[in-house]
Amino acid sequence: MSVLNVPVIDLEPWFAGTPEGKAAVARAVDEACRGIGFLVITHHQIDPALIRRVSEASRRFFALPLAEKRKVDRPRDDAVRGYSAVGEEGLSYSLEEAAPGDLKESFSIGPSHVPDDDYHRGPAAGAHFEPNQFPAGIDDFQEAYEAYFAAASHLASELMRMFAVGLGLRETFFDDKINEHISMFRVLSYPAQTEPPLPGQMRAGAHSDYGSLTIVLPDGPGLQVFNKAGQWVDVPHIPDAFAVNIGDLMMQWTNDQWTSTLHRVVNPPFDDAMKNTRRQSLVFFHQPNYDAMIECLPVCLAPGEAPKYAPVSSGEHLTSKFVKQTTFGGTKVSA
Ligand SMILES: O=C(O)CCC(=O)C(=O)O
Ligand SMILES: [Fe+2]
């Protein structure tokens, strides 16, 4: 029986480090990734004080007048750095007819303190190590964002180790494929809705994410997942716990044994003023090294089965998504 609801998995036994504890966590993670593609994790070792710092710095930024925020506007479609305003991105729209843009604004950064060498700055690196930009005059903004990026990167590498064990690989299998990762950290602000949304307009339309995995910290409910029974189910909201989901790249790596699941952020009920508040989420999109090859893992190939996807590098996979649309984390759907 497939997993139809998002499980809550306590990572404490993983970090305690006994072989039995680690195996049990990896088994639970594997089951979640096969069944629903989402899990909620507790005892993840990210300091709640750091979550608070980055959340508060973000609140101060999003409260600025639009003209101020526009001073750090995202420079280009393929360079997701800085600010994107409400309605500028739509995660879900049909190929024929664009739906209204998502009711969210965002601020994004990539890796910082990038070495000035050919691997990071040469032509093969493309825009993957594009410099970050930060707003002036907000205390602790750059420091908090960079510290959160580092902490989330570390947690992502532990999750990739759980993935490896869960898939029956050696624990360090993914280590050398993510040691120069080209991830993105983005804070999303969903404003309080003072007018009813347009038909089809949501906080974030239905989409799947691109990369290896996404680590989400929402400050309230609204995130929903489309399960294998065809129902939209709520992701349990536990303060300071992370929702984790796998992206399209992990689904390709596992030859569809793991699922990159459609998800969305629904609007608050419009007639309930108490619930119609601003929502903010911290979203870390983990993406392997640009030259890591994503090709069917032999452990995911049953006898007689063929790989479903041609091998592709992580960088090419990401860039191909940018060509199709102008947002970062999601693959649009035509449903
Ligand atoms: O804000 C959220 O809870 C999730 C956002 C999301 O799915 C995305 O940006 O890809
Ligand atoms: Fe997403």
Automatic annotation (TrEMBL):
Show the InterPro entries listed in the entry: DIOX_N, IPNS-like_FE2OG_OXY, IPNS-like_sf, Iron_ascorbate_oxido_reductase, Oxoglu/Fe-dep_dioxygenase_dom
Start and end of every Fe2OG dioxygenase domain? 180-288
Query: Tell me, which GO biological process terms does this entry list?
Result: ethylene biosynthetic process
Give the matching Pfam families. 2OG-FeII_Oxy (PF03171), DIOX_N (PF14226)
Task: Return the broad EC class.
Answer: oxidoreductase
Which cofactor names does the annotation list?
Answer: Fe(2+)
The EC designation for this entry is 1.13.12.19, 1.14.20.7
Q: Which reaction does it catalyse?
A: 2-oxoglutarate + O2 + 2 H(+) = ethene + 3 CO2 + H2O; L-arginine + 2-oxoglutarate + O2 = guanidine + L-glutamate 5-semialdehyde + succinate + CO2
**UniProt entry tagged with the keyword DNA damage:** no
What protein is this chain from? 2-oxoglutarate-dependent ethylene/succinate-forming enzyme
